[in-house]
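Example 3.2
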Amino acid sequence: MNITELIFTALGLAMDAVAVSIASGLSVKTLRVRDAFKMAAFFGVFQAVMPLLGYLLGLSIAQRLSVYGSVIAFVVLLGLGLKMIHESRQAAEDKIHSPFRTHKLLVLAVATSFDAFAVGVSFSLLQTGLIATVIMIGLITFALCLPAVWFGCKLGKSAAKYAEVFGGVVLIVIGCKILIESLPVGK
């Protein structure tokens, strides 16, 4: 996976967290700086750690599945992309309640990073470099979520929906590219 694909994958993975961040901004009358940083940090850390865990799991099963790695990566990314697009139809209020308490942030961070775990499994099957991937995903998620909380108050509820749709489309496109590149046509 090249740097451009890595950046777009990180952007796609971050969109769930961005959508929740926007919705969080919508849910408060006064946003404290520490709450915005806390949310962005939780999402950034979990978006970075979950692919690492998925990668480690994937390594343990990679030898058995290496022949089908590209197909599995495509199916995982397609499924996650479709899931994100489907979930974008859910109202923002249904996804979030009092989001800045630590236990709520923990639940939200885990919930928005399951797709990153699955992508980590596919990274291991594709033998993608782990350190750069984990750092890029975490930093991009943090960098996007921090302003998303602030903008949530001003952008309106529809912005969270579009962020998730964009993220889903990006994951589907990356999955299709992986599958197409693995086809034996022209090899």
